[in-house]
Amino acid sequence: MFANPREVFVYNKSKETFLSFRVRVADSFLSRMIGLLGKRSLKPDGGVWIVPANSIHTVGMLFSFDLVMIDKDFRVVNVKEMVRPFRIVLPKLRAESVLELPAHTVFRSRTEIGDQLTIDRYEMKRLPKPLAAVLPMQPALGLQKPDPTMVAGGE
Question: Can you tell me the distance from the alpha carbon of 75 to that of 117, in angstroms, rounded to the nearest whole number?
Fold first, then answer.
């Protein structure tokens, strides 16, 4: 129940820019309800992805942030910059989820309605095993047992 929060990155394929590298996924009732409440700010590479959602409120928020609403295919259907505290963003019928990102993210990434986003999670890449671990252990040439037929002085 209290597992580590999942994080994803958000990439704008249309503009070839990253929106954020560490966006927390809020997909449970409790995590969607809390969202950014109680936070004093967002880290520059942070954010929250609220799934499902097609509107938000900022009642009780302490800072402004950028908002990106996306449809089921991760296409941007609405963008709002510098959403201030104690506001209500009306629902967008085509929106399936909402990204709450640090202020000025939309401007820096040049994100606009119609852009195609990629949202994916980080995966640990498995490094190839070292060559020594792949090959069976063989003794070094100098440490091999002598062949009895090759011993000096023997016939």
Answer: 6
Q: In this predicted model, what pLDDT tens digit does every residue of 11-28 receive, in sequence order?
A: 999 999 999 999 999 998
Question: What are 126-148's pLDDT values in tens digits?
Answer: 667 665 555 555 555 555 555 56
Higher pLDDT, 154 or 129: 129
Q: How far is CA 109 from CA 16, 65, 101, in A?
A: 8, 14, 11
Asked whether 104 and 59 are in contact (CB, 8 A), the reply is no
> CB-based burial of residue 32 (10 Å sphere; 0-12 exposed, 13-18 middle, 19+ buried)?
middle
Q: Can you tell me whether residue 131 is helix, strand or coil?
A: helix
Q: What sign results for the dihedral spanned by CA atoms 52, 55, 122, 115?
A: positive
**Which domains, and CATH codes, for the chain?**
7-121 (2.60.120.1140)
Sign of the CA dihedral with 111 first, then 117, 121, and 126 last: negative
Q: Is 133 in a helix, a strand, or coil?
A: helix
Inter-residue contact 89 to 65 (CB < 8 Å): no
Calpha distance 144→54 (Å, rounded): 72
